[in-house]
Amino acid sequence: MDSIFNKSNFGSCITEHNDIEIYIKDINNSSCEISSKIDFDVVIENKKGEKISFLKIDKCVYQDGDGQGRKCDLSINNSEKVYFIEIKSIKKENLQKALKTNDRKDDALDQLIQTINKFKNRFPTISLRNVNAVIALKPNINIYSQPIQTAEQVRINQLLTSCGTPNLYLGNKIII
To answer: What is the secondary structure of 41-80 as a DSSP string?
Structure first.
């Protein structure tokens, strides 16, 4: 993954980190940023403390109105795997409903599919079995990312058919 996710391909949109926990916040009308344990939307648990690349996709790699279509918020990768992440806002009191309803997840899936396809076209050597799509629902309640349930097989099939990877997760805590 290092041959794709590096400064020569993405300039200031990509940074490297080796913290045990990496907190990320989706800033309204701006790109995602590394944040703190107090105010975050996604947390990456980097148990081995290995090098992790954080790529700001929305409003950095791709800008609004650039004609590139929809895109997800960010990606995180180590030397073996990449996680494309789309963060969707929900109200805390609506969390259980949001986990069961489809509209926010369908919208997130569409953004993830379009982004993964852009990266496939730009970097044809990317191994799709190591590509993961994550739908993260904020607020900052730790929900371990887990594979989408079998009941949502339609979404997995859509991801597989549209971009060649079946690895779809829901949650905002990712263990690398």
So the answer is: SEEEE-TT---EEEEETBTTTB-TTSSS----SEEEE-SS
The Cα angle at residue 148 between residues 46 and 4, in degrees rounded to 5: 50
Beta pairing, strands 52-56 & 74-77: antiparallel
- The series of mean pLDDT values per 10 residues for the chain, 176 residues long, is 92 97 92 93 94 97 83 95 90 61 81 95 89 82 59 78 86 88
Q: Which two tokens stand for residue 117?
A: 């396809």
Smallest CA-to-CA distance from 33 within 52, 58, 51 is with 58
DSSP assignments along 122-154, one per residue? H-TT--GGGEEEEEEEESS---B-EEPPGGGHH
Structure tokens at 66: 């650039």
The gap between the terminal CA atoms of the chain, to the nearest Å, is: 14
Q: pLDDT per residue over 71-103, tens digit each? A: 999 999 999 999 999 998 776 665 666 556 667
Residues 168 and 109 sit within 8 Å (Cβ to Cβ): yes
DSSP state of 92: G
Answer yes or no: are the C-beta atoms of 34 and 22 closer than 8 Å.
yes
